[in-house]
């Protein structure tokens, strides 16, 4: 076996890119045991080992840059949440990716994604002037000086046909609840969360600065997000760049309004509905109860808890740029989630994240379970309730 070369220069470079805690890792292996990749078979599962990846980074060794190793992590946070040393594993992954992507060596399948975000301000190859197409026929208000909340719709829900329904549902329910909100429109750019997790720091800075300048120039003080990914990055990454606002996910706001009697949900459905905790709403942002309160507020619904829920929720595999990855059938985390829901007697699986919605829908289709299990986003159930 060929010996590997230890490079202190590479290790220091990775640390400077943001992996300040990489040397805290004591190689206990808990991260690897908790990783969702351990629960599926296949080539990626065999190659990707988060503990080994951290070790390669610690030593500045070659090997971590292989695509199935470096870009397999979905940044679900399960390992980081449970690390006994408090290692910021996701920052380490992002920094190791940055050392490769920053050198112009992004994987071929990600280049169009990053290129579109550079050129169009979104990763979905959607033209800027179509960013507001989801609003057609809805009479969505424009954000102005007297508007309380700015509604920031995830790029995915602006351009993906399935996810567009989420944007429409959220807007519909906000109007029904009498919330003062508005949108800015075509000038908005992607929040950049996935771009940063993929290691394109320069692109993230560009997108973030563009949004910060835009939002501040419009007088934004409070933001409602449709996506947990936007929520997380606006709250945790934008402040150090000059973007400081009150940021709330739509489920949190609507649960508050429901508790205060300002949101009525008159119509329900006699169905068993399981709720899937998105990683970025749950583990990353600690929002577990609000979506459940909304689900419980729908008449006749029988909520079903999945085996792996709340802090231990199973990742859908869409984070960390993995939403753009091609994964063979039989190797998808989402398929385990569909099986969970069916085995627990659920007739519907609902979530509160546009990425989860797509990943779970694909998994349900690949298992041919569409007749047994309906995949929805919570905002759609709320919108249906108000008619």
State the gist of this model:
The chain has 387 residues and is an alpha/beta fold.
Kindly describe this structure:
This protein is α/β, with parallel strands linked by helices and 387 residues long. The protein has 3 domains: 8-101, Alpha-helical ferredoxin (Fumarate Reductase Iron-sulfur Protein, Chain B, domain 2, Orthogonal Bundle); 110-256, Rossmann fold (3-Layer(aba) Sandwich); 264-386, AF0625-like (Rossmann fold, 3-Layer(aba) Sandwich). Helices cover 43% and strands 7% of the residues. The protein has 18 helices and 8 strands. The protein has helices at residues 8-16, 30-34, 43-47, 50-59, 67-70, 78-82, 89-101, 111-120, 155-159, 161-176, 193-197, 201-218, 228-236, 250-259, 289-296, 333-343, 354-366, 378-386; strands spanning 149-152, 181-182, 222-225, 246-249, 272-275, 302-304, 348-351, 374-377. A 4-stranded parallel beta sheet has the order 2-1-3-4. A 4-stranded parallel beta sheet has the order 6-5-7-8, with helices on both faces. α16 crosses α17. The chain is globular, with a radius of gyration of 21 Å.
Order of strands, widest sheet: 2-1-3-4
Structural class by sheet pairing and helices: alpha/beta
- Any idea how many domains? 3
Whole-number average pLDDT?
96
The level of helicity is 40-55%
CATH fold-level label of the largest domain: Rossmann fold
Secondary-structure element sequence?
HHHHHHHHEHHEHHEHEHEHEHEHEH
CATH architecture annotation name of the largest domain: 3-Layer(aba) Sandwich
